[in-house]
Amino acid sequence: MFYQLVSFTFPEDITHEARSTFEDALRSLPGKIPDLEDVRVIRAVDDVNVTGYMSVFPSEDHYQRYLVHPEHAPIGTMAEAVCSAISRLLLDDDRPNVLPQGQQDEQLNHVA
């Protein structure tokens, strides 16, 4: 599976209507873009000006097709108009781990 996590930060003066319209547009994508398996649109708990967006794809190839899909372009335009900052993280759980098993466990224990 391939995941895209996006953090949309809104300016403090954004209207409730503008933010909700943008979030609803994100929620509408699964029915419009076949390569998109699932979407979650979630408002952040620790920052009232942030909405998180998680999209799920079968593979990175599917994600690449999503990026150029005609239904995706208006979302980017909308985001540029209403957001003060946008950050993205891409995750692929089908890629092999780069650390040997013992080092993976060591890294996880160190971080926790």
From TrEMBL:
Organism lineage: Bacteria, Bacillati, Actinomycetota, Actinomycetes, Micrococcales
Pfam family, one: Dabb
All residue ranges annotated as the Stress-response A/B barrel domain in the record: 2-91
Protein name: Dabb family protein
Domain of life, per lineage: Bacteria
